[in-house]
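Exam prep: given the inputs below (a chain plus adenosine monophosphate), describe the expected output before reading on.
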Amino acid sequence: MKKSIVKRIAIIVTGLSVCCCLNGCNNNNNGINNAFGNNSNDETESASRDVFAMDTYMTVTAYGKGCETAVDEAIDEINRIDELLSVSNEDSEVYILNESGSEIVSDDTKKLIEASLDLYEKSAGAYDITIYPLMVKWGFTTGSYKVPSKDELSTLLKNVDAGKIEFDKESGFVSLPNGMQIDLGAIAKGYTSQRIMQIYENNGIDCGLVSLGGNIQAYGKKYDDSLWKIAIENPKDTADYIGVIQVEDKAVITSGGYERFFEEDGEVYHHIIDPKTGYPAKSGLSSVTIVSDDGMYADGLSTTLFVMGKEEAVKLWKQSEYDFEMVLVTDEGDIYITDGLKDSFSSEYEYEVIE
Ligand code: AMP
Ligand code: MG
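Solution:
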């Protein structure tokens, strides 16, 4: 028996309530969702816009002189990147690449493919943009969900291996072996929020915040000079929060199976695929939140570490050249934070600090 995706709807409603807060910004919700803050200084110029793009609700907010132009440009940038990377828009670069098998791509797509191949290598293939045919087969691209047969999965898995992508980072030439198709959905929103930070800087605004489907990136501090408070959802109950991180100039990006899933015969199937098995990743983690200066890598890493699981995530955190901190929530509900967040994370739940 299939159940409808109740949680997906819950996420959209959460997104809307955030938008409402932004437009009225009368913040009386006990610190929850107050990333957008109540800038009590009525003199402060502020602008905020909502948009539905990349299959999710987005909100961009800017404060200070130039904020109107900054948010207009931010919305244009979201739409531009969406049109470039969409897997379903027939005019998008990714769609054309997936259909034709080879293409010289734009600078944006080049950067994303380069970062994706880097993550693929560092994660021993846990992060793999060639999972796209699996996303289609599971129905995550259309909403017509179904559990594929083992044969279907093993046939599709033959074409899943980003190591086989031919890529020239100078020219931007990309060539995919026959049957291979890519999906940059794990990194696109973080790249977009990173680009918006640049737009904010170019416009000389004081501070700002973007929420792209719940992925947050903060520009500067809040207008009243306090830190932005970003609440992290409880994977078991998205109306609840497992804690709050206070940040300045950071991306705070979460991946979790609860963000998009369906149920069949009592089994939950979510949208983050283990490229080794073709099934939704079962790594023992319910959510991974990455805190980093770099939105693009924060987004890529959140998906990667969700697939890898706690032990490998900690190894990568300790060893890798990526500069990030993380909050992990296990399937049992245990919470772990890395020690760089010791002073900025607070929670009513017990949690352990990884050093
Ligand atoms: P996120 O919400 O950032 O974790 O990204 C999830 C999206 O990334 C999915 O909807 C797919 O488009 C894509 N994806 C799923 N599994 C993987 C994977 N193992 N490696 C790279 N991208 C993935
Ligand atoms: Mg991601």
